[in-house]
Amino acid sequence: MDRRNFTKFALSGLAFSFLSDSMGRAAPPVMPQPAAPSPVPPVAAAPARPTPRYAALLDRARAALDQHGSAFPLRDRVGIVDFDAPSKDMRMHIVDLVSGQANSYLVSHGRGSDPGHSGWLHSFSNEFNSLASCRGAFRTEAEYVGQHGRSMRLAGLDPQNNNAEARAIVVHGADYVTEDHVATWGKCGRSEGCFAVAPHLVPQVLGLLGQGRLLYSGKLGAA
């Protein structure tokens, strides 16, 4: 082999050696970096449930449940009649004591409690022939069908309402306790002391009350 070919061969071998060495020492693969975690948006606090206007009366109803003990076999729901409100307002509330949810209805008061028909209850009475509403704790009794259709008897458990059953103070339906009546006259009509509600709502009201629960009526200004 002459010197020129030898030099050419040597240079070729050197280049091949350099290429092989470079390939053998290739840069290690770049590992992907984990993505930064996305910021967790703050959880908005649930809005506080507004305190119902009848809350203080509901406290009295709870106290009545305890006071009368076993008089109420059913203690999951109570009825509240808030006579601090005018008759144009939905002032009967049937409250689920577990969830706090309530269904609300128009309800009458007695003409003897509002002689001038102002739409506001001014006084209570437990007297016979007073035609007035009475206050305190009532136990819901059996349903019956009478002069006003499907109705529910009530037993008064306090000294200020213990004549309720003898006075025939009941829950019944009446056309003068409807939204149409209130829209026309600005108030409900008056009963003779009964808790009258809209006729089409009687099944719902009596179904929610049922027999053996508390119906409590009152005003904060009256003990």
TrEMBL record:
The record's annotation in InterPro entries points to: YkuD_2
Keyword hit for Kinase: no
UniProt KW Chaperone keyword: no
Q: What is this protein called?
A: Murein L,D-transpeptidase catalytic domain family protein
In Pfam terms, one family for this protein is: YkuD_2
* Keywords assigned by UniProt, alphabetized: Signal
The stretch of residues making up the signal peptide is 1-26
